[in-house]
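Please decode residue identities from the backbone states below.
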């Protein structure tokens, strides 16, 4: 588990294709690796990757075909910058929100505009994820824990403060860029509890609907 508070920005040092899989080397810059051991997890632009080698200035990780299919790691090139966070411990301040590092889908930057010293990003999520994104709720974008300011269907807006622009790759975002999205894990578990057995049958039902919420007592009837 992670918090979505980025500790360092690293750089892709090598990419080795191995059949349908990928081996990735990241130089970690100022990230503290003293406590990292083989088998530990490091969130790499929001993707939980297992450390398989520690060459001294960073780490190697294997990226499976499943991970390549659902996140933006496959589009990385040598020299690209990535957001880094080591796994949380019981003593880690939870400054962001609980992040699993399991990417739910790819978003796309729709627009970027300055707002004082901050910057406003408008992103579009896959249609299947829009129901999990709520105004003033949390979302993880390329590993960064952020508060949603506005929701308009599958599009949502984020306000990025100067510190976050400096200390993450979000300052490099431009319209058209694709990014890793992880929705709030609490929203997913809540949906699972509300759907009950239907959640275990792929494609069964329409997810959380007003009718379901009304039957569960969360919404009052209109008559």
């Amino acid at each position: 588990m992670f918090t979505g508070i980025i500790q360092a920005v690293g750089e892709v040092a090598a990419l080795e294709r191995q059949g349908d899989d990928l081996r990735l080397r990241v130089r970690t810059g100022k990230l503290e690796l003293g406590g990292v051991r083989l088998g530990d997890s490091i969130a790499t632009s929001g993707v939980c990757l297992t450390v398989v080698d520690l060459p001294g200035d960073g780490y190697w990780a294997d990226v499976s075909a499943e991970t390549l299919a659902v996140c933006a790691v496959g589009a990385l090139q040598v020299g690209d910058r990535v957001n880094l966070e080591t796994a949380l411990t019981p003593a880690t301040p939870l400054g962001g929100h609980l992040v699993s590092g399991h990417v739910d889908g790819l978003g796309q930057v729709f627009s970027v505009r300055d707002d004082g010293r901050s910057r406003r990003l408008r992103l579009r999520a896959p249609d299947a994820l829009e129901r999990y994104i709520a105004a003033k709720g949390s979302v993880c974008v390329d590993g960064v824990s952020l508060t949603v300011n506005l929701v308009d269907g599958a599009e949502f807006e984020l306000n990025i403060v100067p510190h976050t622009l400096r200390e993450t790759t979000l300052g490099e975002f431009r319209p058209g860029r694709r990014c890793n999205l992880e929705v709030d894990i609490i929203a997913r578990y809540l949906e699972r509890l509300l759907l009950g057995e239907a959640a275990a049958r792929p494609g069964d039902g329409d997810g959380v609907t007003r009718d379901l919420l009304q039957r569960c007592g969360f919404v009052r009837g209109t008559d």
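Observation: The chain has three domains: 8-86, 105-183, 186-215.
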